[in-house]
Amino acid sequence: MQTFDQALFGHVKAGRVTFEDAMRVASSPHDFKLLMQADGRRGTTMEDVAATQDQREKAAPSPAAPAPSAAPSPSGPPPLTVA
Q1: What is the distance between the alpha carbons of residues 81 and 62, in angstroms, rounded to a whole number?
Q2: Proportion of the chain in helix, strand, coil states, percent, rounded to 5
Q3: Which residues contact 66 (CB under 8 A, 6 or more apart)?
Q4: What is the pLDDT of residue 73?
Q5: Which among 2, 23, 39, 56 could disulfide-bond with 6, CB atoms 3.0 to 4.6 Å apart, if both were Cys?
Q6: What CA–CA distance (Å, rounded) separates 60 from 80?
């Protein structure tokens, strides 16, 4: 047994229906889009989590030089004093 959107996913993957047409008739367009992005997987395994983390680490920019400190400059105007 499968949902209408799961059957629709199979037709999109087989090339019989375009993604745009499927989105127009899906029971839940948001969930259908998520199903397409997950390539039909309906659950997450620890292997999926590890693979996603590896992809993020590869895509992350390399560390750059540290940003300058936001501390006030010692060469600025002297602090105000109240007498």
Answers
A1: 46
A2: 50, 0, 50
A3: none
A4: 54
A5: 2
A6: 45
Residue 36 makes CB contacts below 8 A (sequence gap 6+) with 9, 12, 19
Neighbours of 3 (CB within 10 A): 15
pTM of this prediction exceeds 0.90 = no
Tell how far CA 8 is from the center of its chain: 24
**How do residues 8-35 score in pLDDT, each as one tens digit?**
999 999 999 999 999 999 999 999 998 8
Identify residue 78 by its one-letter amino acid code.
Answer: P
